[in-house]
Amino acid sequence: MTKTMPIDFNFTEAVYDVVRLIPKGKVTSYGAIGTYLGAARSARMVGWTMNKAHSQVPAIPAHRVVNRQGLLTGKTHFKTPSKMQELLEAEGIIVKNDQIVNFKEHFWDPSKHLDL
DNA sequence: GCGTTGACGAGGA
DNA sequence: GTCCTCGCCAACG
């Protein structure tokens, strides 16, 4: 196999898996995923990994992944920045000023709902 | 090969 | 409670 595999780490694979496991109408944070994977201090890498998600199939529901503040920080990387908010609203999540309302209620922690 | 940036978060002052 | 700094790993210039 090719040694120069762009994505081969279990970490990246796990990130995609966790994001896909996010229930509809729920959201999570990069740090939550990182913490779940044991990389709480590597939240940045989670975001970078999500950047590669654009080439991943099936498409990663990245719109369900926001920062710790519930802010749609990644919307700028979407095909259309407004798409992210529309997707969230379509799932019953209220977004105000690019921020999720009642974020705490919609927050979905993989380390609590999933079993490591 | 080195320096900076990047979808972030936590800890310290 | 708020502001600043460091960490983490990878890719880009």
Question: What gap, in angstroms, lies between the N and C termini?
Answer: 29 Å
Q: Main sheet, how many strands, which sense, barrel?
A: 2 strands, parallel
**Which class in CATH terms?**
Mainly Alpha
CATH superfamily (homologous) name: Winged helix-like DNA-binding domain superfamily/Winged helix DNA-binding domain
The share of residues in helices is 25-40%
- Average pLDDT number: 88
Low-confidence spans = none
User: What is the count of DSSP helices, taking H or I runs of 4+ residues?
Assistant: 6
* Shape assignment: globular
Number of domains: 1
**Rg calculated over all Cα atoms:** 14 Å
Strand percent estimate: 5-15%
Topology summary:
Elements: H1 10-20, E1 28-29, H2 30-36, H3 43-52, E2 65-66, H4 81-90, E3 95-96, E4 99-100, H5 103-106, H6 110-113
Parallel strand pairs: 1-2
Antiparallel strand pairs: 3-4
Helix pairs in contact: 2-3
The protein binds a DNA duplex (13 and 13 nucleotides) through helix 2, helix 3 and strand 2.
Can you offer a commentary on this structure?
The chain has 116 residues and is mostly helical. It has a single domain (11-109), classed as Arc Repressor Mutant, subunit A (Orthogonal Bundle), CATH 1.10.10. The protein is 40% helix and 7% strand. The chain is built from 6 helices and 4 strands; from the N terminus they run αβααβαββαα. Strands 1-2 form a two-stranded parallel ribbon. A two-stranded antiparallel sheet has the order 3-4. The radius of gyration is 14 Å and the shape is globular. It binds a DNA duplex (13 and 13 nucleotides) through helix 2, helix 3 and strand 2.
